[in-house]
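Entry 14. Structure prediction run on the chain below.
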Amino acid sequence: MQDTNYNQKEIDTFFCTIKEHAISICEKEKTLAPFLRRIILESKGFDESLSRLIASKIATEEVSAYSLYEVCMEAYNDAKYLLNYAICDINAVLTRDPASTSSLSILLFLKGPHVLETYRISHWLWQNQRFHLSYFLQSRLSEVYAVDIHPAAVIGKGLMLDHATNIVIGETAVIEDTVSLLHGVTLGGTGKEQGNRHPKIGRGVMIGAGAKILGNIRIGEGAVVGAGSVVLKDVPPHTTVVGVPARVIGKPKIDMPSLTMDQTFNGCNSDKIGTPCPAIASQTI
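Output returned:
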């Protein structure tokens, strides 16, 4: 599952499988062969492949792909867990997105993993006080992918950023493992205050498209935030909230709704649209 801790042998095995798939694609799609050779087949390991991929996406005329490749390799050599996180992120998409059928296509073509792995390099830079370069990566993420993640934000493994467009994650936000976010999600502040001012998202949380979660509040483990909701207060664990402002309407069907991407809920009248449980309908979040 997404929370697995992969050792180096397992990471190498994962990359060998990626390589085997890339070889078969090269034989069928000659147009893609140069791309696959450069990113996958000419790489000695998963770290080299990820570094080449990230660098190719965010390089500019002034900041070359090779210089960014070296930065990424430095990060992977220093922080071995980053490769483990990358595999967890890819497997999160593979197990949760019905449109994704192979690790190779997820790695090469989906924005979500590209965004996350680039953020993880920027976060490593931030932790090593290389603030200007980390800001550069944040800026390029915003320009290339339309996703803005502050390098200081803390994000766990096994995340799925579905469609990965117009997502904003603030400086003091914390996202624990195995969370799923759809497009248009904001984890932001509520004004000009400084300090610890952004949301904390628990394990297994499912956040629907366009949801805005604002302020130093906590979304409890296994909660669901419905699409388009505005959340301004803490959400209890294993609770479904919807609306503007968000209100409690029931509970998810499973403990970790992020794993199934199921945004429905169990409540007194969960089969009737717009008729939440009377006992909980007034609980504004």
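Residues 1 and 91 are 7 Å apart (CA to CA).
Filed with the rest of this week's runs.
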